[in-house]
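Section 5: illustrative case.
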């Protein structure tokens, strides 16, 4: 049972040192109880108090690590119901389904195709993380062989899907190096599956026919000493699945129900008969509140929009993505190459730099700190004013890299040209296009 703020306060050192970021130990205790602070922020808490406070300081939804290597990731660990309250921490994992009766050639082809789904967007590498191996009833050798191939010959993590404990044991042994997720413990096999997960030290998914059924199973498994659990309430109808996800999330965050304080796995692959509909259902689950989503396949038109949605949802809404202020050479510019200036909003930077790179024209791109605002917003907010931009250009060091004094500003900020020229005597300020898509033609026509 989670401790109250007053109970936590009694265990704190009561120094009111302010090193945790709040003025008093009582305020810190209240933040800790509500999930708005972490115990490690207090530098003076005793080991004895730390052990007593472990439950109160733990996230209401347990973080569970899956996979190993470059695609290892964590699900769970969330502390809020709505993204605008704080932020969501652990992006939804995406998995594709592979049957254990797949041929070696087909599996090799799938792995090569799946590995190609990697996209660079605003400085992030977006990619799916897991492959789910589903028992097709061909025996434990076939199941273990496919699991072993995926674990050893690809970067992907593995989900092992069978309710047969002997088959699961073979798969866990074969793919153990990738820390696979075992799916699933049910009412019929909970003792044996729990014992296997505990023996191997692996995360275990729990499947029931309802949210209430999950509570019985998770209580039993946690009583066995298992902590890394993933929940499946069993619904395969869209509306019920959404209701179950919301119920589980609310129960853990708002009611402190530790029996449901685990990440959720969902199966759009079992809710539709075509990938397009699966993708729509997956999009719903990424938003509400699937921690792991299993599709029947990966295709570019399905994976890319889901990855972008995931990026948008799991970006801190209170902190815009930004690019470091500075000078960025594109296409190997020299001293006569043009100079463009823009803001440090990450999306703006990557769109502008991408258009310049695509033009094949060498150029210098100056990125000014605008507190993560786009050009138009930054200009309206006074974060991209003429005198500030002019001062930035003077201090940037670009004058040492070029033999001319001409700078190109975004069309949306044309109004700052006069102030910039006053701040930069001898410089020519040219107004570029309003849209980044027109930059290549503009550069080629200079």
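Designed sequence:
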């Amino acid at each position: 049972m989670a401790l109250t703020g007053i109970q936590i306060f009694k265990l704190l050192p009561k120094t009111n040192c302010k090193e945790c970021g709040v003025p008093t130990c009582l305020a810190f205790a209240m933040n800790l109880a509500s999930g708005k602070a972490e115990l490690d922020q207090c530098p003076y808490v005793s080991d004895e108090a730390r052990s007593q406070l472990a439950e109160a300081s733990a996230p209401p939804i347990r973080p569970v690590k899956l996979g190993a290597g470059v695609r290892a990731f964590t699900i769970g660990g969330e502390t809020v119901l709505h993204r605008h309250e704080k932020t969501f921490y652990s992006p939804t994992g995406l998995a594709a389904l592979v049957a254990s009766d797949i041929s070696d050639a087909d599996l090799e082809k799938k792995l090569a195709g799946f590995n190609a789904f990697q996209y660079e967007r605003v400085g992030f590498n977006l990619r799916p993380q897991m492959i789910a191996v589903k028992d097709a009833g061909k025996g434990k050798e076939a199941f273990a062989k496919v699991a072993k191939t995926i674990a050893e010959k690809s970067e992907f993590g593995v989900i092992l899907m069978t309710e047969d404990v002997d088959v699961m044991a073979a798969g866990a042994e074969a793919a153990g190096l990738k820390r696979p997720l075992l799916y699933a413990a049910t009412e019929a096999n909970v003792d044996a599956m729990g014992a296997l997960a505990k023996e191997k030290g692996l995360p275990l998914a729990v499947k029931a026919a309802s949210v209430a059924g999950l509570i019985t199973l998770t209580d039993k498994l946690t009583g066995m000493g298992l902590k890394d659990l993933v929940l499946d309430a069993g619904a395969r109808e869209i509306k019920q699945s959404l209701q179950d996800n919301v119920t589980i999330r609310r129960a853990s965050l708002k009611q402190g129900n530790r029996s449901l304080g685990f990440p959720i796995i969902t199966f759009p692959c079992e809710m539709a008969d075509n990938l397009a509909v699966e993708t729509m259902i997956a999009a719903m689950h990424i938003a509400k509140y699937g921690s792991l989503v299993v599709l029947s396949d990966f295709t570019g038109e399905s994976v890319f929009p889901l990855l972008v949605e995931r990026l948008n949802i799991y970006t801190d809404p209170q902190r815009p993505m930004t690019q470091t202020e500075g000078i960025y050479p594109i296409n190997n510019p020299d001293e006569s190459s043009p100079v463009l200036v823009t803001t440090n909003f990450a999306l703006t930077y990557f769109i502008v730099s991408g258009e310049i790179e695509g033009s094949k024209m060498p150029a210098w791109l100056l990125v000014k700190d605008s507190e993560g605002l786009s050009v138009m917003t930054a200009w309206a907010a006074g974060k991209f004013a003429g005198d500030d931009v002019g001062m930035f250009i003077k201090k940037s060091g670009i004058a040492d890299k070029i033999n001319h004094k001409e700078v190109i500003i975004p069309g949306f900020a044309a109004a700052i040209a006069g102030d910039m020229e006053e701040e930069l005597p001898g410089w020519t300020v040219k107004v570029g296009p309003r849209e980044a898509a027109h930059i290549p033609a503009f550069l080629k026509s200079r």
